[in-house]
Backbone:
């Protein structure tokens, strides 16, 4: 089956790198000679991407942070625009990262190159007006949640539901006993997991509050703390936040092991909430952004829940602590109450069972590549 010979892919953050790696791998499996280039991270590069830029050069968040990085982002966009003409891809695949990718999509269409957009901007959550901007600059939306399909059909934008790519990478880790032994935890006390995120800006806003909560939780319950460290972060950097807290373990490259076996997790809002929900682990979702960013975007948010796990589950299954409530004392109070109430945790775990059903079936990357091939014929 003949497909595109040259594909540009643009991902701008770690989750996009994870999902983009599956697409690159599938493209290379079908045609090892195809030229796949653009922006990605270590996972996409390992899968075969010729990286023009690394995601670390784009991974910024928040209104003021983006403003400060605008010169860099504009330079990256100009370079990619030059590559559209000089290297002339058959198709461009844009992965999430809407602030940059929707703007770049206009440049792609100006060159008369098809655009496939994989993983929709969260128009159902905030800035719904973006959907009007997509018409005419996105040839096909490849969505990962079934409820997104109707939104694009209504707007007259071609759309395909491909399922969630997490199902390709979520593993079935060993059980509790092996987990405890491997990481040096005791079976006599609960394990509370912390997932502070993957961007330094997130870490610096949220991790200190999580660590403050961890101290209070440990004092109240004797809980042991496992911190799931993103593979894109340096361990030395993460250690710099600790103050001799021996009950805390920083663990890298074992997030799913921790998610499956923790008694409770405190999770920064984002994809990690879905991953934790997949394992039906009770959790508290936390998030904090700069005050300026929050003031700007709060009026634009159209839904009550911001945690993906609650949005996908269809209701407030797990508690969310946002902005001022994402402080050590409030997190600890909520966590201790959950640890002392096994019935509530069991009910939460049962309600999270819907997450697996809502994510579709494995094979998202193959369905993305099927769509890309059909767009090039």
Residues:
């Amino acid at each position: 089956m003949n497909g595109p010979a040259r594909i540009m892919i643009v991902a701008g953050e770690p989750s996009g790198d994870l999902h983009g790696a599956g697409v690159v791998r599938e493209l290379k499996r079908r045609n090892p000679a195809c030229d796949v280039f653009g922006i990605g991270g270590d996972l996409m590069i390992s899968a075969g991407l010729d990286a023009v830029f690394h995601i670390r050069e784009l991974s910024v968040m928040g209104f003021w942070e983006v403003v400060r990085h605008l010169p860099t982002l504009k330079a990256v966009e100009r370079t990619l625009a030059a590559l559209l003409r000089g290297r002339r891809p058959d198709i461009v695949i844009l992965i999430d990262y809407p602030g940059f990718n929707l703007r770049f999509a206009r440049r792609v269409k100006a060159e008369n190159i098809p655009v496939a957009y994989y993983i929709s901007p969260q128009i159902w959550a905030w800035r719904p007006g973006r959907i009007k901007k997509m018409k005419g600059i996105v040839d096909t939306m490849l969505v990962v949640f079934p409820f997104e399909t109707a939104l694009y059909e209504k707007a007259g934008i071609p759309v395909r539901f491909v399922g969630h790519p997490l199902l390709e990478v979520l593993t079935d880790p060993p059980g509790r006993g092996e987990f405890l032994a491997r990481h040096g935890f005791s079976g006599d006390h609960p394990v509370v997991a912390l997932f502070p995120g993957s961007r330094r800006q997130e870490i610096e806003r949220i991790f200190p509050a999580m660590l403050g909560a961890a101290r209070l939780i440990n004092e109240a319950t004797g809980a042991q703390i496992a911190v799931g460290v993103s593979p894109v972060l340096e361990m030395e950097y993460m250690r710099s936040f600790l103050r001799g807290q021996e009950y805390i373990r920083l663990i890298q490259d074992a997030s799913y092991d921790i998610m499956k076996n923790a008694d409770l997790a405190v999770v920064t809002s984002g994809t990690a909430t879905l991953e934790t929900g997949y394992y039906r682990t009770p959790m508290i979702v936390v998030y904090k952004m700069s005050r300026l960013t929050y003031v700007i975007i709060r009026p634009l948010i159209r839904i009550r829940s911001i945690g993906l796990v609650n949005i996908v589950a269809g209701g407030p299954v797990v508690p969310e602590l946002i902005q001022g409530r994402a402080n050590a004392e409030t997190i600890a109070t909520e966590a201790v109450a959950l640890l002392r109430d096994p019935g509530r945790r069991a009910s939460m775990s049962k309600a999270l069972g819907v997450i697996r059903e809502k994510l579709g079936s494995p094979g998202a990357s193959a369905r993305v590549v099927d769509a890309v091939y059909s767009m090039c014929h």
User: Anything to note?
Assistant: The chain has a mean pLDDT of 89. The radius of gyration is 21 Å. The chain has two domains: 6-164+360-375, 176-358. The CA atoms of residues 111 and 172 lie 44 Å apart.
